[in-house]
Every structure is written in C-alpha cells, then in structure tokens.
# Entry
Amino acid sequence: MTGWGVLKSLWTVLRHFFMTYVDDFRYGPGRRYRPEALAERQGAKAQGIFTVQYPRERLPLPERSRNLPFLVEDATTGALRCTACGICTQVCPVQCIWIERAVDAETGRPLRRPAQYHLDISLCMGCGFCAEFCPFDAIKMGSDFEVSSYERPGFLDATQLARRL
Amino acid sequence: MKAPVNLPEIPPELRGNVKLISFDTLYNWARKRSLWPMLFGLACCAFEMIATAASRYDMARFGMEIMRASPRQADLLIVNGTVTKKMAPQVVRLYDQMAEPKYVIAMGACAISGGPFKEGYNVVSGVDRLIPVDVYIPGCPPRPESLLQGILALQARFDHENIASMRAFQKTPDEGIPVPLLGPDLADWQTLWLQSHPEMQVAPELVDEETISQPGRIHPLEPVPFGDTAKTVLILQSRFPRDIQPLEDGLLVSPSKILQVADYLREQLSYRILSNLTAVDYPNPPEDIPESCIDVVYHFSRLSGGGTVALHTRVNRTEPRLASLTPNFPAANFQEREIWDLFGVRFEGHPDLRRLLMWEGFEGYPMRKDWHEAYFEAEHKPYRSRFPNGSKPRSAESRSPFRANVRLPEGWQPAEDGIEEVDRLLYERMLSADRDPAKPLGTEELILNFGPHHPSTHGVFRMVARLDGETVQHLEPVFGYLHRNHEKIGERNTWLQNIPYTDRLDYINGMTNNLAYCLALEKLLGWEVPERAEVLRIIMSEFSRIVNHMLAAGFLSNELGLYFTGSLYALEERELILDLFEAVSGGRMMFNYMRPGGVAADLPPGWVERARELVRERLPQKVKTMQTFLLDNDIIQARTLGIGVLPPEMAVACGVTGPVLRASNVPYDLRRADPYGIYDRFEFDICTRQHGDAYDRLALRFDEIWQSLRILEQALERLPKGPVQSHKLTPLLSVPAGETYTRIEAPKGELGFYLVSDGRRNPYRYHVRSTSLLNLTPLSAICRGAKVADLVAILGSLDLTLGEVDR
# Structure
C-alpha cells in the first residue's frame, strides 16, 4: 500500500523518541546524571538518550586511549627517564621529535640523557609509535584532549612535555 | 578613568525585575549561544565533527543546532582537515562570503600546520596562512570532546569582545582576503608579496647531497610460479615469445605490444578486470634495468578468482609515450590520467588526457623521483637533523624561500585570467563531450558545478554537469581537492611509518587499510601471522565493514533529504563500535593497530564480552530498525529505484568492485575470489542484487551487514589463545627486495597496495589502488540522462571517501 512504508519509518522515529521516556520510568528519577548511570546509558543495552553531557560529565576513556605524547618524569628524582637513545626520532612518521644528546663537558663522551628534547605538537599525528618503541617507557601517549589554544601550537620543550606519573 | 554614570531611579514596582547590564555583555551573551557553524568538511577530522554533531556529543547543546551549508548563513568555520593547494582558493572564497563577525577554528594537526601531510607538494602548511584563525585544536584527529572544548574556548573569548573595537564593526570596510591563484604553484597574497620583495625571502638551505638519488635495485630472479596465474604466464610467453620477458613477479612487455597483450588477456584468458595500473620511476636504473625509464605496471584479474597477472612495460623518461588502454579497458581512464599527471607519461589514444589530481598548469610531474617539493629535506626518513644533534628544531617553513610549501619560478607573474587557465581544458571537454550530432545545440544548456564544497559530495569532490533543462547531458568528476600526496610521502617514510598514514586513506575504515598494507608487507617479508592475530584481524575488518555500510546508508538518506536523521541511527552504532576499537587500539579513528606479523596489542580484559553483547543483542535489532526505516520507506524507494543503473558489463569493464559491483549482480568478493587471511574458514555468503540501481546498492549494504554479523559470531566464538605478534619489530625494518600487489576486500571494494622494495628501509614505490576512485569511473556514464536531483542519490549510493579517492 502506498504510504505504508512512510508510516512505518515515521513510527520508527516516534518509537525512538518514546523509548527515551520509557527508560526514565524504568530507572526512576535522577538516573540520568549519576556517574554510575553513564556506563549503562552508553552500553549495549542503552535505549534512551545517548548524549554525554560534556563538559558536565565525561566519558571514561579506555586505558589505551591516546592523543598526544608526553615525557615521563621519575617520581623520586624528578629527572626524565629519557636516555636520548633516539629511537623515537627514528620511528616518528612525521619526524616531529628533535633530540640533542647531552655530552660530558670534560671527556666529550655522550651521556645517557637529552640536553634538549623538542616535539612539534602541531605536527604530531598521535600514532603512538614513539611510546610503543621506546625501550625505557620514557615517552608515553597521554589521553588528555582538552588542549585547544588561541595561538598556533608549536615546539614544546622537555619541561613542557614532562609529566610525573 | 570613566566618569561615574548616574543610573536612573528604578520605580519601586519594577525593582527586582530589572537588570542593568552593559550592551556588550548582552550582545556577547546572545552571540555566544547562537554560533552557526558551516557544514564544511575537508578530511578525516570532518568525521569527528559529524560525530560531535551527532547524538552522543550533540553540539546543539551549545546553541549550534543547525549547521549551515551556505557560508552566507554561517559565522563559524571549522576547518577540519588538510587544506590542499587546490582547495585553498575555495576555502578563502568561503571565508570571504561568511557574515561578520566570523570565527575560524583550526581543527586537527593538518589544519594547524599541514600536520602529517605537511611536506606534501599539494598541502598548505596551516590554514592560518590563508585566513585568520581564532582557536587551534591539536590532535590527529581531535576527539569530539576536544572540538567541544575548543568551541567553549572560542565562546569564552566572546566575553572580552567589545562592539566598538571589533573587527566586524570598523568604519573602514573589510575588503576580504584575496583569493589565492593556482599557477605553477599556489600563489597566495603572502607568496606574491614575498616574490616582489626578495630581500624578505628566507635563504634556502643546502640539501644534504648524499641522501639524494641512490639507484634503486630489484633482484632479477627466475620466474616463480605464483598460484594459478603461472599457467597464464606460460601461455602468454608462448603466444608472444619475442615481446615478453619474464620478471620476478610478472612479465615485461615491449611497449608497442601492450595493447595486443592486454586484449589477448581479456578475450582469450578472460582477464576482464584491470585491477591496478601505476608506474614506477627509475631515474638511476638498477642493475637489471638497462637504462633510466618509467616502468608502467598493469595488474589484471579474473572474475572467477585467483591471483593477478602483472605486466610491466618500460618507456623512456625524456618523452614517455604509451598506447592507452582506456578504449578497451575503461578502468584505465582515471589511472592513466593519474600517471600522466604525476609521472608525465602521455597515453596516446586516451579520450580525455587531463591532469587528474593536480591542476592544469602545475609545474612538473611530482611523483618522479627527481622532483622535490619546497620542503624537501632528504630522500628518506629518518632525517639526520633530528638526532643526536637536534638542538635547533626548525620548522619546515624556515627552509623555503616563501616560508611556505611553495615554489614559484623566478619572475612568474599571475595572468589576468589565472583561474580560467586551470579549468580551461575541463570546460572545453564539457562543451564538446557527448554531443548529439543530430541536435548540435541543446536548449537551455547550462554548466553546473557541484562542489568542491557541497554537503552532498561526501567531502571535497567536484562534479561539473552540462544540463539540458533538468537532464544531465554530460558529467565530469574533478578530483584532487584532497590530494595529500600520500604516495610521495609514503616513499619517503620507512616501512613501519606508513602504517599510521594508511589510516588516513579511507578514514572510515582505518582497520582494513592497515590490514591491506600489512598483508602486502608480510608478503614481501615472508612472515607468518599467529592464529589469534588472524582472527582479531577478521573481527576488526568486519566491525569496520558494519560501520562503513551503516554510514553509507545513513549518508545516502542524508542526501535524499532526510537531513541528519538517517545518519544519526548509523552514528550511534558507530560510536559503540568505535568504543571497542578505541579500547583495543587507543584511537577512535586512527587505529594504527595492525602490524606486519600480527597486531599491535592483544584485547583488553572484558572486550570479547562487550563485543559479543553488541553483535548478538544490539546490532541485529538496530540494523533491522534501520532497514525498516530506510528500505521500506516509499520516499527512499521513489528516489532510488531505477536510478543510476550500472549494468554488470559496464561495472566489470570500469574496474568497479565491492558492494557496487555486487549490486549489479556480479558475485565477486575477494574474500572468496582471492582469499587472504583465514576467511576461507568462515561461513558466509556473497550477497548480490539484480538490478544495479541506487536502491540495490543501498539494500545490498544491509545484506552484507548481516553476513558480517555472521562472521563476527563465528570469530568471537572461536578466538584462540596465543600470541598476537610473530616477530619483534624494529623501528628501521629492512624489507627484502621485490615487489607485490596485495589486495583485500575492503568495505568499499578492492583495496590494493603495490609495493616495490629495493631491499632498504624505505619503499621504492608505494602505490595505493584506491577503491573509491575506481568506483567512480562509471559515474559519468550512469549519470547521463539522469535528473539533477538524482546526481546526489547516485553519488551517495556509490559510497566514496575522498581521502581514498585523492590520496
């Protein structure tokens, strides 16, 4: 019958609208914005409103979630874990990491720490290779996503990149 | 110091009901909640913007209910993705047309600085070179929350604006930004100014001579029998004994005979599909190649299945000419144009040999090995300047005279009609093609441009149509607005560095792109994959297929006039599948998950249970809902039934693959025809539909989702225990010399990687056989005679991703 398909489609949309309230009745008032309700609303069984009220509530990020890299600072000594081995500069696909290896002033021999470490945050593609191939777990991928700025981001140095775990 | 204001006395009856605030506060408060973003998508980040607008993140909560497709109704431009030089004039023009006060958000690394594609010859290094940017959001791509936070940051900025000092309300009228010109390279106003002020130019740095142009090397080997194609090779050799020589992985055909050999393959041996056609440049020939040449490579395959046959033919580099296969194999059309564009091989007999990706007038053939872009640093990554003496980080801008990725010949002056030159050949073709000789002049003829900025073209894609009233007489697709030089960058990268780049090809299906590249690498390396990793790869591919097909259906409904409703259903399920992807790989869109020899990481705890719940309980129910919603709908049927019929013969000849081919009743699916991984152990059906119209292409995608769910059920059931990686990867992986063309059944069709290794750490040639590009080959033919309103239905049903079309 002509028009039946349209009615069925409209019913689909209408039912979706009603399901929002059915869920509310089932779980009682206040269900929507409790933290433990978030997992339920975002799970496979969710029927009603799917919206996460960012910035009021936040979706828990998975452990592996990655956005931009940071350097790991030792909690006790406060020094960087980085040994300036240069593997991250080799593996970085966009070549946005620049390392100057520290040199012993007296002997002239290279030391196991960076004199300077720069990372161009405007180029980083967040692939996670630097963290994956770092043999010392000295660079990690952070899941921090609130990083917008009014100025064009550029090179970050070691102090800006360092974070204590 | 301001004089104290004498506030008027408030009558007692109004006290408590009146609030006195400054006009600025009121004005800013109102503006803050009524930003109208433009519906403008450039690349991968656009999908995160779409996700932001969809149900989970819902940017309507911040007063951005409607995204306007017209710049005149919008005041927020979210530049989401790579701005290419070819697209730059359009971006500036759109910005100029927006209503003041207007704001720009640069979303993602590409929009900020060119990002991963910065060094590409067609990429603008940062949209802030063209238009002023208010907020930058780093990330690749930034999460939807990231974009929301950026928008909140922009709104916070409003509080400090003063109507008296705002740019928009100045007495001197804003003349807008001059639209950049496309000449031998992109000429924006800064470049033109610098050109006339040579003293302000940056002195170009000397390039490290040692790293330039080492000869490539390919081992000549005995011809190895490769599967069932060995027989074909023997037949061809006996048939053309003087014109064919065996190579390691294919046959070398003399250039004069390529047409005969190809025809023989098609007519006598039923190799009817020209899978892949590309070229390799050898300026310094390796030992087994007598002189410098361009090697044109053809891969043919059969509908009945089995491997591909590779034909090589070599032409000289100074004035390369070759007979065109397009008259006999329409699938060669775009691929030959691409080779002409990027390598400069002239195909004689090609009906329409124009540049495909770059614009007419661009200087040079950029894929040649001796062509270097303005940001050229060294032939191969990793660059030496980074370690151990990387004390002075320099941005690439400091190496180029124009502080941009631009090279203009000395003394170049923009012509008065600079823009006209770019499209002249196109319009000549538009006026002459498909003319009815009996009716030389049509009535009311009109040439109409769709795109490159159009909400229904799935990205920056342009169609030029010649109309007679409402009827399309001729249509030409125009590509290259998202040409990010994937292949040039890919040849500079190390083998591993290319994996994250493949994510950005077809950015809906990062997983399958990863898979195709890693399979190709494994073929060269000769590595095995552990059982568990094989199953994981299949799980990821099939989830990816579901996402792709649901989105394709959703966006088609969008184009048919449902606006966002259909897509919202698809995007909700996509979010849940992306949650799974993110839990396992860390990325929402850019997974970087597959590795040669396995996958990057094992599943986190609880993953299988979540996936099972989704596959068993939620997805079947939701797919059914969508099916009722879309397929049974009379309006959708009226708009798609019998529209854009693609006959099976034409589909095969045009190199169309994937759901589009199967909807034309050709049961060709590489998971069965040329199985890879462990697909041969799974039970599933190859779906086909009978008519090949837009409705069938839509319906077939739902058929395939059901099959994918079937595969997922089995895969999640029989997930074995064990390692997920067979080899320890080293950052600078060397790959044995050789070449391979490896293809998989990606959600959109045959996705192939043609890799040539010279035994070193970087690919000598890295070519992507793009599914979406080849699926567009018959577009012009099937649109002929259609109405204007059908164009978007046809295009939507072909399901393309511009990242893959233009690469």
